[in-house]
Amino acid sequence: MENYLNAFLNAFNGSVQWTWKSIIFEVPWYTNYFWGLIAISLFVWILEILFPWRKDQSIFRRDFWLDAFYMFFNFFMFSIAISGFYKMLEVLFKDVGITAKSLAIIDISAFPMWLQLLVFFIVLDFVQWITHIMLHRYRILWNFHKVHHSVKEMGFAAHLRYHWMENVLYKPLKVFGVMILGGFEPSQAYIVHFVAIAIGHFNHSNIKITWGPLRYIFNNPVMHLYHHAYTLPKGSYGVNFGISLSLWDYIFKTNYIPEDSGTVELGFPGDKDFPQDFLHQNIYGFGKDKKKG
Questions:
Q1: Model's pTM, two decimal places?
Q2: Is 102 helix (H, G, I), strand (E, B) or coil?
Q3: Which of 32, 39, 74, 225 is the most buried (most CB within 10 A)?
Q4: From CA 104, how far away is CA 100, in angstroms rounded?
């Protein structure tokens, strides 16, 4: 038991110290996710201000500050809080003989770095795409995912507006993806993480971007807006599930872009009764199963 407690405390303290060192610029700039997130957010927000898709949408749109809080809560505060529990699980798996390489299907360690990063990016994105479908397909998970879909005006900060339980689900599945790839992240994986943050911000931004012919590979704001549409195709529980890549939606026929005016209503049936504040949004999914929405 002492091993588990030490693992918890060491991981928690390490996360706190790393975050603080990031804030005061004592970590390498290329791994400084604190200021990196701020820089990407400011860049995309400035583009929203200069080139707004929905020109009648306020610079400080509805729930702007709530979404800004979600960004820092999910990306840092909750990550710190949960880090110790993940480390305890790692120790438990090690004790029962399960290592990071136990499920390895592909060992990318011998690949050139650029190929390591590419394979890492593609596999993790596919894992997240499948996870995203699960969040829509199963009611118990959908009740948590409703937080993300309660956005009524889209902007970059909506990217990280999600229930903390999604972190609990996504993180182990991402680790599973890493285990498939030989049990490690490439040494320059920070490039993939920053690219994913930037794409996610753009996908939720008030900017009309389609990437031209590359839209069949990369997700974009026009495509992702319809993922958040209030009215979905009949018989569907969701469309355009892509995270960074739109590729999976086109391959598995879950793509849907009927037009590109940007004026589609956002949300989900029953969202008028959905909580508007952070606290109640984050306890919503633990209540009695909701029959509507």
A1: 0.91
A2: coil
A3: 225
A4: 8
